[in-house]
Amino acid sequence: MNYSWNWAVLFSEPYLQWLVWGTLMTIAISLVSWVVALAIGTVVGVLHSTENAWIRLLTRSYISLFRNIPLLLQMFLWFFVVPELLPDAAGTWLKRDLPYPAVATAIVALGLFTASRVAVQVSAGIAALPPGQRMAAIASGLSMVQAYRFVLIPQAFRVIVPPLTSEFLTIFKNSSIAMTIGVFELTARTQQIESYTYQGFEAFTAATVIYVTIALTVTMVMRHVERRGAIPGTL
Amino acid sequence: MKFGTLSAVAMMTASLFSTTFALAQSSDAVIDRIREKNAISIGYREASIPFSYIDKEGQPVGYSTDLCKEVAETVRTALDLPDLKIEWVPVNLQNRIPLVANGTVDISCESAVNTIGRQSQVDFSNPFFISHTRFLVKAGSGIAELADLDGKSIALPINSVPERLIKSLIEKGDLDVRIVPVKDNSEGFLALQTGRADAFSTDDILLFGLKNKAVDPASYEVVGKPLSYDSYGFLVQKNSTVFLTLVNATLARLSRNGELQTLYAQWFDPMGVPLSPDLATVFHVIAIPE
Asked: Does residue B255 share a domain with residue B126?
């Protein structure tokens, strides 16, 4: 192979700075999207576990819609199509006046997409609890809201920590799709370094190491959360 | 006696030099590979109109593609390989340089701008096209130059040569221009069409292509004086001078006998982009005599 390696590129300015900015952007959009996903996912997941058929129809529609459309397409739809469907003034505001339109759109798209997956896990976690838990909570005089708040949700979340960890890891990797609507996150910065220096292999190696580091850190944190949250005597 | 030894040494040295020269001139890594496989692998793009793209039958066609078929013809004759086959390899903006550098592709025939930075990884053939960075705007927008975009927004393809140029011009002119980074040309056009950006800037030939493909070509126009002179070359592996010479000889032959001009007209006249005086001069410059 006829490739001249130059690892020093990664440590020279401005490329080092680009990598740092890219990493920070990846972490920022992933964490904010994760908060959005957890909040919406929990609400939808809880509603999905109730017995009201109309509510379940709504939550099932949300989950099917957002879980089954590829994220790449969702990013594109939110960025290019949604502003055209809104009234003119709102569309123009989204396109012209919203600060950092690409970042905001990416967070909405990534958050809503991941929320649909979190919702399924939350409702599965609730369904996995013994039915006696719900009955006992109601029987002891708690309202339905209190039963969810104090009995069901706390236990369900403990059950679903492992699949949530996967989802949390995935959101960091999925954040690279934000590049397609112009967010300069880690992958975009990597390609930028490649296009300026033609040292693509070095840049992509650096990105790989950074993504793996983020993933391992998240795994360790979540393992800690799982251990700290475990109820003695249960799995 | 002394004279005899000296002359013997001189003769030996001379013969040594001539053999190494002969070897160095008849072959290089690319030529060896072509001989071994009895095939030349040519890189093409899926949608770099009209340079290299896929037609309705799924075949690579275009101006650059046609030129490289001629290169393959030259190689067939020069290496005396009558059954030389052409392997078509799809390439994109991200992988074309690595694929040429690692030898997967013998020659990438599309629309690569020759830059000093790129020359650290690959070599370029002589230029066969010159493009200029200009703007695509909505007709009647009143935008003619970069300065007119002060307080407005411009879409730029991420990680492209024009992106770098426009950003530096904005900085230099201390202009307040909002940048909308887009991932490819169709997204850039969409940004302009939907009003997210007031202009889209990239190589003018690509802008003409976008304008002509639009439902209403008359509502768009390509404006601005040329901001750059970007010459397009074919990519070949570094230090494969014998092969590169064959490539440049092909371009020279085509230019001398007028086929290059005919090919240009065939691909660019339908787009309304006649041969510019600049490019006509370039064609004369690359027409090196045999």
From this structure: yes
Q: Could you say which residues from 33 to 92 on chain B have a Cβ atom under 8 Å away from some Cβ of chain A?
A: none
Asked if B235 contacts B108 with a C-beta cutoff of 8 angstroms, the reply is yes
B272 and chain A in contact, CB less than 8 A: no
CB contact under 8 A, B182 and A182: yes
List the one residue out of B132, B136, B134 whose CA is nearest residue B197.
B136
Label residue A58 left, alpha or beta by phi (over 0 means left) and psi (-120 to 50 means alpha).
alpha
Using the beta-carbon criterion (under 8 Å), do A196 and B239 form an inter-chain contact?
no
The model's pLDDT over A63-91, given as tens digits with 9 standing for 90+, comes to 999 999 999 999 999 999 999 999 989 99
CB-based contact, B6 to chain A, within 8 Å: no
- The total number of structural domains that make up chain B: 2
Alpha helices in B150-271 (DSSP H): 161-173, 185-193, 204-213, 241-256, 259-268
Selecting from B190, B196, B238 the residue whose C-beta is nearest the C-beta of A2 gives: B238
- pTM for the model stands at 0.73
Q: B179: domain CATH number?
A: 3.40.190.10
Q: Kindly report, residue by residue over B78-96, the tens digit of the pLDDT.
A: 999 999 999 999 998 888 9
Q: What is the fold, at CATH topology level, of the domain defined by A7-229?
A: MetI-like fold (1.10.3720)
Q: How far is CA A213 from the centre of its chain?
A: 17
| Contact assignment for A179 to B183 by CB distance below 8 Å | yes
Chain B, 179 to 208: residues with Cβ < 8 Å from chain A are: 180-183, 187, 190-191, 194-196
Q: For B43-61, what is the mean pLDDT?
A: 91
The number of CA neighbours under 13 Å toward the Cβ of B43 is 28
The residue in chain B having the minimum alpha-carbon distance to the alpha carbon of residue A94 is: B196
